[in-house]
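User: Can you help me understand a structure? I only have the sequence.
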Amino acid sequence: MRKLERYPVQGRNALRQIYRTVSPWKGVKNFIFIQIARYCPSLGLKNWIYRRILGMNVGKDAAFGLMVMVDVFFPERITVGDNSVIGYNTTILAHEYLISEYRLGDVRIGANVMIGANSTVLPGVTIGDNAVVAAGSIVHKDVAPGAFVGGNPLRDMKKT
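Assistant: Let's start by predicting it. Here is the structure, written out as tokens:
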């Protein structure tokens, strides 16, 4: 079960009211630096941007592949543990804007985690230490430490 904070809205849909939630200047600044990090070949510079400019908690030797997209509006709610690998074109979200509410949730990715390319991690999930997420997965629930999961919907995979 995802751990989410729910905020109901009145009138127009929640996304139309986004700048009541987050400063437009924060969104623009974060978007610019996330785009720089997405294309940056230097893992050290990427991690510096994530830690110092976006406020993410990124562990030692964590590696973000090319084109990884972290949450633009709430990157400070993302934690990635030591020695973890986030695969090419993965998206990590800490928010959801729906019709009648928006939801926020911390994303915690443990140490020594491998997330395969083109995966999406939804808000409010925890991925335990030493877990493996197969490429193309939608992580919509917590992943136990040491688990090997994949797919949509996410399910346990057998190791061979």
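Now, to help you interpret it: The chain is about 15% helix and 25% strand. The first strand starts at residue 5 and ends at 8. Let me know which part you'd like to focus on.
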